[in-house]
Amino acid sequence: MRFFLIIYIFLFSSSLYCQKKDFKNYDKAFKYFKKNNLDKSKDILIKIIEKNNSWDKPYLLLSNIYFIEDDIFKSSELLLEIYDVNNIDDYEGIEKVANNFYKKGFYSEALYYYNAVCKLDSSFCNSKIKRFIKSCKFSINSINNPVVFNPVNLGGNINSNMSEIGPTISSDDNKIIFTRRVEDGDSKPQEDFYYSNKVKGEWQKALPFPSPLNTSGNEGALSFSSDQSLLIYTACNRSDGFGSCDLYYGYNDINNLNFVNLGKDINSKYWDSQACFSSDRNYIYFVSNRPGGYGGTDIWISKINNDGFSRPVNAGPEINTDKDEMSPYIHPDNLNLYFASNGHVGLGDFDLFLSKRNDVNDSWNSPVNLGYPINNHLNQNSLVVSSNGITAYYASTNDGYGLDDIFYFDLPEIFKANKLNQIELEIIQSRAGEEIILKNVLFSTNSYDLISDSLFELDQLAEYIIKYNINILVEGHTDSIGNSNSNLLLSKNRAQSVYDYLVSKSVKNDQISFKGFGDKVPISTNNTELGRSLNRRTSFRVVD
Description:
Blueprint: H1 2-18, H2 23-34, H3 38-51, H4 56-68, H5 72-82, H6 91-103, H7 107-120, H8 122-144, E1 152-153, E2 163-169, E3 175-182, E4 190-199, E5 202-203, E6 207-208, E7 219-224, E8 230-236, E9 245-251, E10 259-261, E11 272-277, E12 283-288, E13 298-305, E14 308-309, E15 313-314, E16 325-330, E17 336-341, E18 351-356, E19 368-369, E20 383-385, E21 391-396, E22 405-410, H9 422-429, E23 436-437, H10 455-468, E24 471-477, H11 484-504, E25 512-516, H12 529-535, E26 537-543
Parallel strand pairs: 24-25
Antiparallel strand pairs: 1-22, 2-3, 3-4, 4-5, 4-6, 7-8, 8-9, 9-10, 11-12, 12-13, 13-14, 13-15, 16-17, 17-18, 18-19, 20-21, 21-22, 23-26, 24-26
């Protein structure tokens, strides 16, 4: 009997010894993990678990390693060794399983475990899980109904073995500006702006902007006005800054670059970044995490007036959520707002969204997710669309020349913006008060009766005036042949004919005025037929 008692005590004590927590080897595994030596860390953790399968910490660390290595099923299997899907006390652990599946894009598995959490704790479900359940269902449906998506790399003249991000495109589609993360030898990596011009349909070799736009520090998120006269960008930790990152602007003159801080009405002691101009140059949209918003980072709007920039207002709860909104881009049509968000229902981290409005006086409508595979479980951030309303540019880690490259693709029909016609392009590309010639508005010789071929262009102009609520001055001009007084009267009558036609197309008469100048404001010589034909013109200016 004594012999059996000794054996029992030995076995019991051996069992206790085997179940001891091996902190020494666990600490060693954790150090390997911190040094990113995952294989050695895994080997140690597996041996620890073999000796003691009731200690949670090795399971958690080993699960984390498999998650990093994208073995999501092995990672989740380890978590389910310590969390019971039927145990109410384990609801947060089951949430972790669901989150891991969700982060890797396994939406059906994530949905199963999110629903399991809701069965365990309904109040926790309502406060944290319901949004993810909606996103899982949306993601499954999106994958089953993909949109057309064929991205094309912009090529070696734009992309390099470094990281290119944050593209912006001019309204005439012939200039692209982007940020490149420059890594030069042993020096600290930093971000600079590059630009490329399109010549005969081909992008030229990208060149860096000179100082003082590019500095030894970081600059990013550059955008320019539709007439390309102004640049606005973000710079961080500067001596004249009001917060961590501030917005700066100045004239787009490569031979005389000079930029100033937008000031305390725009910049705060918080993070202010990622600005873009509306095409009418009346507003800037930007991102800030200042108080008074709906979440972490929100999209804010500031009106541009004669005194500068007004105090910004929040874009509102249709756009902003209790999470983060980023990288706003207003298409040149001024009616389509593209941005990124991790707060609206989507496929993962940041997704790309589109919000529309009917005219510039309307509020923005509820955003629409751009769908799969434009969006996926990874991070999609920053998209711009050319004036044709179809071609979109974005940065991606898809196979290319380096880390991040810039790609382009055609938007699916439902996400396209409006293609700008020639009149619209000339208006948004003109400087304030600049003359815009109506090239297709014609009259018979010595007559102020409009030729029928003129009406199409005037119809487009009328539509633009109504949609964007602008005011114009119509101008009539002649060449110098004939009597100056007669020329003045003819030019006035021709300007009035345009005025009368626009009013007949429902343009309010207080939005238009007209004036004749005769031969007093030539734009070319009157000594040649070509020069005189250029001087005989009907034009307009956008006025306040």
